[in-house]
Amino acid sequence: MIGKIIDKKEVATGTLMVTFKLGERVNFKSGQYIFVTLPKLNYPDERGPKRQFSINNDPSIGDQITITTRLSDSEFKKTLNELPLGSEVELGPIAGVFTLPEDKHRPLVLIAGGIGITPYMSMLRHIAKNALDFKISLVYSNRNQDSAAYLNELKQLATQIPNLKLILTMTDDPNWSGEKRMVDAKFIKEYFPEVNAQNYMVVGPPKMVEAVKKSLL
Fold first, then answer.
1. First-to-final CA distance of the chain
2. Which long-range contacts (CB under 8 A, 24 or more apart) does 152-155 make?
3. What is the pTM of this model?
4. In sequence order, what DSSP letters do the residues of 46-68 get, joined into one string?
């Protein structure tokens, strides 16, 4: 399917949000991802013009797809950043099983590092819009507030979703007076003393995900 860029904006330092308007409605679940294929690259990229991104918007907005990415020296990302509003790209297929559990009664801990927040944005927007009865703790780790994508919206969602507890940690921010530790076994045990009483989902840089997984185990 074809998606037309209708919005682009920086949602954190060096972090680009792109919204595509579709010519048809699509069905997807919060947490799934979509492939984006650019018509051509402005720079040579041996990986080609196709990448996958988590979908960020609420599934009820079926005629739009929003993605968010950290900008880098990647030829693909540089081209995406340079595309003007109105540009068309190929979208799809949609895939992935990293979705909200069917069981709403067991508490859920979402752990995000950096840009790993993106699939959770779709989940939380979906929960807020539909007043779903999940009990959720979101642990969101960043170096500093400037690099924390969707920080203000997350604070707002924490006031809209009755059973959402937001735990922010900024590991290298002299202007942050809150939690500053890395998410490790000690961190998890302090915030969740009954470690086995909830399910955990983890997204972030590969090293961070592996470290958190090891700490949980």
1. 41
2. 153/121, 154/117, 154/124
3. 0.94
4. TT-SEEEEE--S-TT-TTEEEEE
12 strand-pairing partners:
15
Please give the C-alpha separations between residue 191 and each of 143, 194, 196, 198, 208, in angstroms, as whole numbers.
20, 9, 12, 12, 18
Question: How do residues 91-138 score in pLDDT, each as one tens digit?
Answer: 999 999 999 999 898 999 999 999 999 999 999 999 999 999 999 999
Point out which residues pair with 37 in neighbouring strands.
Answer: 50, 90
Reported as a single tens digit per residue, the pLDDT across 123-181 is 999 999 999 999 999 999 999 999 999 999 999 999 999 999 999 999 999 999 999 99
Beta sheet of 64-70, edge-to-edge order: 50-54, 33-37, 88-95, 2-12, 15-22, 64-70
